[in-house]
C-alpha cells in the first residue's frame, strides 16, 4: 500500500466512524431548545416541531396563567438529543389560546414524570426553556357567537390579538364609545401607563381605565391609540383620560367604555389585555417566606407586606420555618409549590441550595422573587435588595473603627454560615479592613449565632472570654447585635467592648443609650416587605417579566427599575445613634 492510499483510507475510516457515532453523543453538546409553531389542537394533541434535550427529558405543556406558564395539561417524554415532531396529548378542555412548551429533565425514575420532584425545568442561561405558541381548538372555534357581531368569534378565542380584532367596528357601523374623555393626553418620552394614572388619578393602579377608554375610542374610529400591551406605549400616542368618577366606574366594572351593543361582546377581550393581568392578580395568594419565624425584623417586614397586600387586593400569608435552616425552608417551599400558591417572596437561607426549588416553582408557573437574602440567579426572577452590599460592609468597618479609636481586636458575630446576605457583607467588611487606615485593627474571629438569640448571646460571651482584649463586635444581624449588646452589658464591659452592626431601633434603643452599642445601621424592614410584595405583584400580573430596565410602581415608595443584575434596590440604610433613635419605632 502506498502512503497516499493509506492516508485516504484513514480519512475514509474517520468519516465512517463519525457517521456511525450515535446522534446522542453529538447532541449532548447541543444547547437544549424547543421550537414550536402556532397550530390547531388535533384529536387532543399538539405537536412540537423540534426539541433538543441534554439527556432524557420531558416536553411539558403548560396553560397560560396571566402571561406566564400556569398548570400542566400534558407531557411527553423526549430522548437525549434531537427530537422532531413530538406529539403531546393534552387536556384540550383546559387549553388556553396561548400555551407554553417547556423542557424538563427526566432525572428521577426514567419514564415517570415526577414534578414537583426530580423532573424540574431545564435552565439555559438562568431561564426556563419554554416558548409560547397559540392554538385553536375545535371547542374554541365552535364557541357560541354573540348575536350577529364580528367580535364574537374572536372573543371566544380570547387571544392577545383578539383585542385588536374585537375592537374593530362591526361591518358598516362604528362602535360608539360610551365613556367621555375628560382630557386628551399625548404620551411623552419617559411615560408609562401607571405614571399617567398616578398623574391624573393619584392611583398607579388605575391605568386599566385609561386603556379601556382609549381603546374604546380608537375602535370607534377616533384618533386615539390602540393599546395592545399596557407595558408598551409610544411617545405621541393620543390617550383618552376619563374623569376620575368614570375611571372608578370602569375599574369596578359598573361601566363599560364601549357603547351598549358592542360592550357585551367586547368585555372579555378588553379584560384579556391590560386589565386581565391586574384583574387576575387581584385575589391572588402570595406567600412571604422569612429565613425563620420569631425574628422581629421579619415580623416588621410582614407588616409592610400586609400593607401592600391590602392596597393591591391580594392575600399575603406569612410562613416560615422555625429555624434559619435551608433544608427546612426547602421543605416548606415544596409544600407551597404543591399547594399551587400564586407567588413566593423568599428570604433565602442558602443562595445555591434554594435554586432547584426556585426553578421548580417557576416551572410550575409560580413567580418567585427573593428579598433580604438572595437566591442565586436562576432560582428566582428578581431579588429585592435592601441596600448596596458593598456600602453595608464598608460602613460596618467605618463605624467600628470610629467606636474603638482605630485600633484593637474586633470580631464578627454573624447569622448562619450559609446566609447569602451576611456572607456578602462580610466579604466587603474584609475588603474595607484591608485598607491601610485600618492597619491597627485585627479581625480575630468570625462566629455564627444562627439568628437565634441564645446561641448568639453564648457566642458573644465566648468571644469576650477567648479574646480578653477584644474591643469591638460587628453583628450584621438584628438577632446577633441585640444579643451581643446584652452580653456586653451583662459582662460589665460597656465602654470596653463596643457593639455595632445591623439592628432594629426598638431592640437596640436601650443599648444605644447605655453605650453598649452606640451606633448601628439598618433599612426599614417594613418598606422591604412592602416593596417585595409590589415586585411580586408586578411580576405575577404580567406588568413586568423580570428583565433589566423594566419599571414598575410600588405604591407609596414610587417607581422602581430592575437593575442589570436582576435586582431591585430599596435604598440607602439609616445610621442610628443616641441623636435619632427615639424618632424610630420598628
Ligand atoms: C436578621 C436576618 C436578616 C438580615 C437582618 C439584618 O434579622 O439575618 O436576613 O437582613 O438580620
Structure description:
With 586 residues, this protein is α/β, with parallel strands linked by helices. It has four domains: 25-137, Immunoglobulin-like; 174-258, LysM domain (Membrane-bound Lytic Murein Transglycosylase D, Chain A, Roll), CATH 3.10.350; 283-384 and 527-535, Rossmann fold; 389-522, Rossmann fold, CATH 3.40.50. It contains 18 helices and 26 strands. The strands form eight sheets. Strands 14-13-15-16-17-25 form a six-stranded parallel sheet. Strands 2-10-7-4-5 form a five-stranded mixed sheet. Helix 13 crosses helix 14 (420-433) and helix 16 (478-490) runs parallel beside helix 17. It binds alpha-L-rhamnopyranose (RAM). Residues 291, 295, 297, 347, 372-373, 415, 419, 421, 451, 477-479, 502 line the site of alpha-L-rhamnopyranose.
Amino acid at each position: 500500500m502506498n502512503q497516499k492510499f493509506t492516508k485516504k483510507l484513514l480519512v475514509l475510516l474517520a468519516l465512517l466512524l463519525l457517521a456511525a457515532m450515535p446522534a446522542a453523543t453529538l447532541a449532548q453538546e447541543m444547547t437544549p431548545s424547543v421550537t414550536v409553531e402556532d397550530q390547531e389542537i388535533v384529536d387532543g394533541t399538539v405537536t412540537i416541531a423540534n426539541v433538543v434535550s441534554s439527556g432524557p427529558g420531558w416536553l411539558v405543556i403548560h396553560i397560560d396563567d396571566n402571561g406566564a406558564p400556569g398548570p400542566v395539561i400534558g407531557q411527553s417524554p423526549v430522548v437525549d438529543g434531537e427530537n422532531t415532531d413530538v406529539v403531546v396529548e393534552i387536556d384540550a378542555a383546559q387549553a388556553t389560546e396561548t400555551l407554553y412548551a417547556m423542557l424538563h429533565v427526566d432525572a428521577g425514575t426514567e419514564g415517570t414524570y415526577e414534578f414537583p420532584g426530580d423532573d424540574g425545568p431545564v435552565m439555559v442561561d438562568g431561564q426556563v426553556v419554554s416558548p409560547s405558541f397559540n392554538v385553536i381548538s375545535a371547542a374554541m372555534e365552535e364557541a357560541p357567537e354573540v348575536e350577529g357581531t364580528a367580535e364574537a368569534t374572536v372573543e371566544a378565542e380570547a387571544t392577545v390579538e383578539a383585542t385588536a380584532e374585537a375592537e374593530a367596528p362591526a361591518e358598516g357601523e362604528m362602535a360608539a364609545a360610551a365613556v367621555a374623555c375628560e382630557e386628551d393626553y399625548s404620551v411623552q418620552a419617559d411615560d408609562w401607563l401607571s405614571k399617567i394614572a398616578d398623574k391624573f388619578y393619584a392611583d398607579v393602579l388605575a391605568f386599566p381605565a385609561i386603556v379601556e377608554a382609549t381603546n374604546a375610542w380608537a375602535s370607534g374610529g377616533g384618533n386615539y391609540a390602540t393599546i395592545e400591551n399596557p407595558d408598551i406605549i409610544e411617545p405621541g400616542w393620543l390617550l383618552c383620560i376619563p374623569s376620575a368618577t368614570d375611571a372608578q366606574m370602569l375599574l369596578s366594572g359598573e361601566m363599560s367604555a364601549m357603547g351598549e351593543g358592542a360592550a357585551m361582546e367586547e368585555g372579555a377581550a378588553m379584560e384579556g389585555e391590560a386589565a386581565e393581568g391586574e384583574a387576575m392578580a387581584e385575589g391572588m395568594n402570595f406567600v412571604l417566606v422569612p429565613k425563620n419565624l420569631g425574628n422581629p425584623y421579619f415580623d416588621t417586614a410582614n407588616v409592610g407586606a400586609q400593607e401592600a397586600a391590602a392596597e393591591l387586593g391580594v392575600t399575603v400569608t406569612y410562613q416560615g420555618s422555625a429555624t434559619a435552616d435551608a433544608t427546612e425552608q426547602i421543605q416548606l417551599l415544596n409544600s407551597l409549590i404543591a399547594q399551587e400558591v400564586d407567588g413566593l417572596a423568599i428570604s433565602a437561607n442558602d443562595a445555591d441550595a434554594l435554586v432547584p426549588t426556585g426553578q421548580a416553582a417557576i416551572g410550575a408557573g409560580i413567580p418567585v422573587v427573593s428579598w433580604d437574602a438572595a437566591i442565586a440567579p436562576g432560582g428566582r426572577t428578581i431579588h429585592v435588595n435592601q441596600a448596596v452590599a458593598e456600602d453595608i460592609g464598608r460602613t460596618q468597618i467605618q463605624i467600628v473603627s470610629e467606636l474603638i479609636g482605630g485600633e484593637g481586636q474586633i470580631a464578627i458575630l454573624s447569622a448562619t454560615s450559609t446566609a447569602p446576605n451576611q456572607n456578602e457583607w462580610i466579604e466587603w467588611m474584609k475588603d474595607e479592613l484591608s485598607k491601610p487606615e485600618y492597619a491597627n485593627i485585627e479581625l480575630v474571629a468570625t462566629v455564627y449565632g444562627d439568628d437565634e438569640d441564645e446561641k448568639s448571646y453564648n457566642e458573644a460571651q465566648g468571644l469576650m472570654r477567648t479574646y480578653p482584649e477584644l474591643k469591638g463586635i460587628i453583628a450584621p444581624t438584628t438577632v446577633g447585635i441585640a444579643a451581643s449588646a446584652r452580653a456586653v452589658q451583662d459582662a460589665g464591659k460597656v465602654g470596653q467592648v463596643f457593639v455595632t452592626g445591623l439592628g432594629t431601633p426598638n431592640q437596640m434603643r436601650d443599648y444605644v443609650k447605655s453605650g453598649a452599642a452606640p451606633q448601628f445601621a439598618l433599612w426599614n424592614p417594613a418598606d422591604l416587605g412592602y416593596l417585595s410584595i409590589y415586585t411580586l405583584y408586578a411580576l405575577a400580573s404580567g406588568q413586568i417579566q423580570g428583565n433589566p430596565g423594566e419599571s414598575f410602581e410600588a405604591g407609596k415608595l414610587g417607581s422602581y427599575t430592575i437593575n442589570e443584575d436582576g435586582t431591585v434596590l430599596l435604598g440607602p440604610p439609616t445610621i442610628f445613634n443616641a441623636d435619632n433613635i427615639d424618632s424610630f419605632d420598628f
